[in-house]
């Protein structure tokens, strides 16, 4: 384990945290918008759910193949951004109904999902600029 983590920088841990948060968000999003007791099945976006799931697969593969890991943060940024945009597209009609006062109720699951999507999106954008693996040569001024 120590050998595996020896060449990783803080960017790796941010990517790992994004993966854990993505899995948590997939569970929360599925239960709150598609679950059996949910009243919001019409606003569930399969595109958003699938994009969150898709980037976990290359991340898991990159843990075993070091050469793939340098692309994990880029794949995460693309998939999480698409997932966030699909989420916004999926809830657009629901929010427009809320804003006109037809069905004036914002529940806590909406805010939880929206905040988690935004946190993941911003985290993935920041993670693009973080180094994932230590380089052998350092630049000295």
Description:
With 141 residues, this protein is mainly α. It has one domain (15-127). 68% of the residues lie in helices and 0% in strands. It contains six helices and no strands. The protein has helices spanning 2-5, 10-34, 46-54, 56-64, 72-100, 108-127. Helix 2 (10-34) packs parallel to helix 5 and helix 2 (10-34) packs antiparallel against helix 6. The longest helix is centred in the middle third of the chain and has 29 residues, at 72-100. The protein is elongated. The model has no long low-confidence stretch (mean pLDDT 81).
> What is the structural class?
mainly alpha
Number of domains: 1
Low-confidence stretches: none
Query: Distance between termini?
Result: 34 Å
How large a portion of the residues is in β-strands, by DSSP E? under 5%
Helix content: 55-70%
Defining traits:
single chain, 141 residues, mainly alpha, 6 helices, 68% helix, elongated
Task: Compile the SSE list and pairings.
Elements: H1 2-5, H2 10-34, H3 46-54, H4 56-64, H5 72-100, H6 108-127
Helix pairs in contact: 2-5, 2-6, 3-5, 5-6
Give a concise summary.
The protein has 141 residues and is mostly helical.
């Amino acid at each position: 384990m120590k050998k595996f983590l020896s060449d990783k920088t803080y960017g790796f841990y941010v990517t790992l945290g994004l993966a854990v948060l993505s899995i948590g968000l997939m569970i929360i999003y599925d239960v709150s918008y598609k679950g059996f007791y949910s009243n919001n099945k019409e606003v569930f976006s399969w595109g958003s759910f699938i994009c969150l799931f898709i980037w976990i697969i290359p991340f898991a593969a990159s843990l075993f193949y070091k050469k793939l890991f340098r692309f994990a943060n880029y794949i995460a940024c693309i998939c999480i951004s698409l997932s966030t945009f699909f989420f916004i597209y999926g809830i657009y009609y629901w929010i427009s109904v809320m804003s006109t006062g037809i069905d004036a109720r914002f529940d806590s699951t909406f805010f939880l999902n929206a905040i988690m999507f935004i946190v993941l999106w911003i985290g993935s954008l920041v993670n693009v600029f973080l180094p994932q693996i230590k380089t052998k040569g350092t630049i000295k001024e």
